[in-house]
Fold each of these.
Amino acid sequence: MQRQLKIEIWVGAFVLMSIAALLMIALQVSNFSSWKEKPSYQVSALFDNVGGLKVRAPVKMSGVVVGRVTSIGVDPQSFKARVTMKIDRTYNELSIDSSASILTAGLLGDQYIGIEIGGDEEYLAEGSEFELTQSALVLEDLIGQMLVKFSDSGE
Amino acid sequence: MGLLIKTMQKRSIKLNGLIGLLQKTGHNSLQILASVGRGAMFIMSLLPALPYSFWRFDLLVKQIYVAGVLSLPIILTAGLFVGMVMSLQGYNVLVDYNSEEAVGSMTALSLLRELGPVISALLFAGRAGSALTAEIGLMRSTEQISALEMMAIDPLKHIYAPRFSAGLITLPLLTLLFIALGIIGGYMVAVGWLGVDEGAFWSQMNSHVDWREDVVNGIIKSVAFAILISMIALFQGFNAIPTSEGVSNATTKTVVHSSLGVLGLDFVLTAVMF
């Protein structure tokens, strides 16, 4: 009986330790805390080129994350890229003429969507669309433009 | 089933020359097929007995103690050192690109996705799987299992089922502990010794490790490994020739087969998951 008790105590300690490990992995290591759905609304934007933007990329305003990209696809009418994103309900007073641009964190970092606030009294709501967008900078295009400029000035 | 085992274990007539080679290949293939068949039949008869292991909870607890608590020292030490080495090696590469803060997310991701489940499974196969095979093989060779059967006690319910369930529960828990200790080891080396910024270490890790994609997939992997190892260990014990040589052969087979199985299954799971 004594032995069975000792075994049970050890197994209890083992299981509790493992649960503590799981909690540590969930809370400290992974993004479990931001995984749960916050109340949010969905808006979309059309871009000529999304570059390397990925689903789940952050949507930032003044550098603060206010939402995430939920899907990227091609709009069947305009043949532009349609990016839909979820924005936290707490930021529900973004005026309707705000602009969305695809920016890069650092020189080689991941791409994200930066929102710049406009001045209109009307606000973005569920399903609305950004009117003003700026596409990602594509390195090849930049180099191409530069080459054209150089050849122009050479003549 | 007994008849099948007897015919397969009977010493066969040996022929010489080309025909002999043919006969040997045929004999070996038939034996492999027979053992696959016996394995499948064993698993099929084990499955309905599994719920019983939760009814006789004391047997299950004892097996969790044997497989889990007694494996703790080796798992914890290995986890700590693997995390420390990962962190040290990662730092040496990343410091050239001025991004040594990424060492945290690198250590955490590789531990969660690959190293944690795989190394714990390999250690578990060596530490607990081999012991399981040896125990059951010896029980058979000393005819303890036949004795149980004679007392109308079903060895499937009393011997095999609790051990299988214990393996299934224990390995994922050990894997979690391995990963947690590995991350703590990586933290100690990176922040304590190499001077990586503490806030950047955790925040980088936080933003790169995904709960569903990385953590849950790692746990799924380790459950799959647990099923594989427990199945192989129990079957090898059940299938062992009840002599001291047979038991030692079966123990070796358990470690070899389950290690290879874990590595192969890991590749398949990684290809499917990530």
Amino acid sequence: MVKAFLKYQIKQWLPAALIFLSAILGFSIIAATQFNVYDTYYSNPYGTYMSSHADFMTLFFVIPSLILAFVFPFFVYSHRFSRKKNDIIAQLPYNRSVFRNYKLVTGLVVLLLIFSLGYLFGASIAAARFYAAELGGNVIREEWTRVPVSLNGGYIALAYGFGLVLIAADYFINCFIISKVNTILDGIILMAAVWFLLFINIKPFYNMFTNVAYPFIDSQTIRKVTMIIEAIDFSMYRSVATFTEIDKVILGRAETIAILDISSENPASIIRLISLISHISLGICAGILVFVKEEISGEFAGKNGGRHISTNIVLAVGIMATSMMLIQVGYQIAIASILLLILLSTHFFVTVIYNRGFKLKLADWIIFGSCGGLELIYLITIFIAALH
Amino acid sequence: MIKIKAASKSFGETKAVNSLTIDIPAGITGLIGHNGAGKSTLLRLISGVYILDEGSIYIDENEATTQEAKKNVFFLPDDPYIPAHYSMKDVYDFYSTFYDVDSERYWGLIDKFALPKNQKVTNFSKGMKRQLYIAISLAIKVKYLLIDEGFDGLDPLVLNDIKEEILKENKDDKTIIIASHNINTLDQLADRFVILYQGKLGQQGESIDMGQGLVKYQVIFKTEVTQSDLEALGLEVIVMKKIGSVTNFVVKEKEDIEALIKEKYETLIFEQITIEPDEAVVLEMMMIKNKEGK
């Protein structure tokens, strides 16, 4: 079985994998050659100055593959998006869940392989350019401080390892999302809603509380609670920001990765570390769930139907959280009210698109009404906060 | 043997298969039914594509969705998926990855159907694609072959070739189920017939008229005779139509119908005419509908 499946999967993935790999390698080359590792001279009316740049941003080698972690789940669950394809795949002489699991593993392996090749290729070119510049007699210095910069190879490997973990986590989170839908459009909508939610998280809901409670609770307590809330807040940008912290160490600009420096007095490190751990934990949980879940019967493949009502709730909460974040802009009641109307209309139309029609079910109206109500309450809390 | 017991499958609020119980033995079974009767859903349930809501389907001793059962079943859908870039060799390679495929038979059929080997499948006409699908489904060595709408878009010559090849497969212990609206072709192929009606078993039998013993007459009555007049004679009239002076009616077979009618009503012409397979199925479905209505 494994042999047969591998043969099938290699054939299935090869064309797409080669296209993605070419794109990633191309991006890596561009990124690696754009880093400044030479002293440059520039002039202005006051004189001529020398400037040394030493940017080594591993993030550029990770971002393209992170984007692929959002694309690959659509390939893994492609049989869900077409009845014709489902007819062929679901009847193959394998247990459908085992078959799906093989696809999950193959997708991950291909994704990590593409990332690894792209990263190692790009990082090698960038490192080679750095050392070549040094060998050529250019001492790479900080632009303003003039402190010599050296490259820490060990941390390049660490960034690679961290990239592997983060990409795998996002891959599984997205696979979990896609496993809940039967069409590509639903997948895109739900994925957007979930990631908006993961970005924004519970912050707006917490703000709703602080807007009203601020005058009555002492600022010290508010600060502590805010810290806890921020620690729970799992935002992807925090995980991604970790790469920039590693980059600082790679270039000797920092001694340790700030996110791991929890002994420091800076509570932001702890917040970021918890956020990072929660990101990875979410990936692990999603991974476990997608592997153990029995693959569904395929009667809704490619059709708008068979979705669990929970996906409607997640979609609504995702839009609501985004709306609340946007309503907050400027704390101006007039602007916030107009924004609320715009966002409620957007919310309604996304729901209509998700349901493929204006005829919404009672459950959808309840969800929509609840979200609209909460957004209105949020607006009122802003008004209360403004009064204070 | 395929054993289906109290099988049900719903799509939302629609019951596609409704508490269906039936055994399908070896040989060719023709699956007939109106649009939405549940034919395609039943084939997908037998092949393990769909999972039952209730009941059970056993392929020999194994439950239909198990790997053991699926090894022995191949389902050819009405419009199978083949990636756009696939050639006929790719189709062969794909299926031979998962099934035991008789290469000689596959390429022999490709030659027989005169399909162009150097073209991508995506450039094939509908009929050519159908021939290719039939070729691969006949070359895959499975005990159970399920064909959904297998004869659509085929010219009479090709249809004849395909019928020939399907009949060749009807040997040993092989079970072939063909769902089709092409009743005449089914009549020439099948050993037995199953009619589905609204997801339930409507009727089954070894001949297309399901052994109902229907007879059709073409009569010119001298006086006006209605369906109730004939029913008053103790005849079970399935359908009666009058076109001009000619009355056509179908009744359940009974001893000496002609004498019974002639005794009461004067006729100018009285002759029994053959019921074509298509018509037989329509009559069967009307009878089922009437029965369900009652």
